[in-house]
Amino acid sequence: MKTNKKSETYTRRASTLGFLMIITLTVMIGGSSVALAQLEGIEKPKLTEPGVFTLQGEFVRMAYNGEGFVTLGYRTANSSVGDEWLLLEMGITLRNKVKEQTLTREDLTILTPSGKTIPLAPQKDFSAANLMALDRRANLVRDSINYFPLGARHACTLHFFSDLSGHGRTIAYDQVSLNYQRACVGRIYFHIPDGIEVGQHFLNVKFAESTVQVPFRIFTKAEEKEFRKMWKTLKQEHEEGFGQE
Fold first, then answer.
1. What is the average pLDDT score of the chain?
2. What strand order describes the sheet that includes 117-119?
3. Residues 112, 211: contact at Cβ < 8 Å?
């Protein structure tokens, strides 16, 4: 059963992780970053939950707290501005020794730049939308999101949506069982009626006692061009300032 009450254990962990997050944000997107200082108008994400996030690729983000761990790939979403369907590649597990729990469809939401909270799409809407073209486009260039803690040794697949290829599963499930030894990955889809916006988004993942927020920014064409040029410098600055856990 889910609860909004956080245990003292997670509170203590969150305090430490919150401090680390401040360092991460400062290095990654704050004014001290030489690289991103060139991207005018971009501000660091303002998280409302304690946690840490880092960059693993141009369009790959990783975030975690004392309870949960999430990886995210959003290259296709970044090239879908104005479209009504947002596709994300997601990986998820629990932190070491955290008790097994169930993740449901209702536990995944997107916060848009305009402040709207978008739930994970229902399977029936997904099926009716005929998203095979979107899926094929996502298959052309796929970033690895296989960044998990060492303890997550067993692969599992997120089956929130049926396989569009016609060669895989035809049944979707509304939940998945999580434990710290399982590394679960899969595609998730959100219906954005007003179209995907440029700007700062957050994938919010609600675990049993906390929420992990994964910030990802949809760039303008100009921002993306500058970001790509400075990516290696930005990644180096981030790693030097934060280090590898």
1. 82
2. 117-119, 108-111, 199-206, 211-218
3. no
